[in-house]
Amino acid sequence: MAVVLAAGGSRRLGGRPKQLIERDGETLVQRALRLARETAPARLLLVVGAHADQIAAAGRADDVQVVLNGHWRQGLGSSVRAACEVLAVDAAGASRCLLLACDQPALQRAHLEALLQAADGAASGCAGSVHGTRMGVPAVVAMARLLTARPQGDAGLRELLNALPPAQVGRVQAPELALDLDTPADLADAARRGWIDPPI
Questions:
Q1: Averaged pLDDT of the chain
Q2: How many CA atoms lie less than 13 Å away from 11 in the CB half-sphere?
Q3: Labelling 196: which of 21, 91, 93, 141 has CA 20 to 30 A away?
Q4: Can you give the pTM of this predicted structure?
Q5: What is the pLDDT of residues 96-115, one digit of tens each?
Q6: Which letter, b or e, does each residue of 180-196 get, where b requires 16 or more Cβ atoms within 10 Å of its Cβ?
């Protein structure tokens, strides 16, 4: 099971949808879906909110189920809750879920595979990405924990992951993922590093 969280409004970018910024000619939402797909999930969800029609169109594929988050202004946690509402009806027998955002342009498939492996070895069945002092997305969360989580605001799953006993959760270092695309300065930095295509 995999969920791509792509509902944000890109407010600090002046409303320009960060999900449609490109890397190597591929939009970031398409890239996130591709990376998730390469982990062979039984089911692939795309959560949209702001610019829903554009982003859903960019991510449309036979294996992608689009979930509309009507409360996207409440932050990332609302997108996790929207995904959980769908998964609570039918989780297809999955024991865990990979969650990722599409505004971390340095993300690579190898990191997602490392998270899945770390979750396999963790007592909680969970693993998170370490960028900075705390864990966050991308993350793997045991389905039972995910379906009872009620994340709020922009914390997403950080509170759930960081509340677990350290010995029971997998941790995968990823300092490069600290750069997400919130501001024009972030875009310039990512372009300089080759993580997004330079503006035309």
A1: 91
A2: 6
A3: 141
A4: 0.93
A5: 999 999 999 999 999 999 99
A6: bbeeeebbeebbeeebb
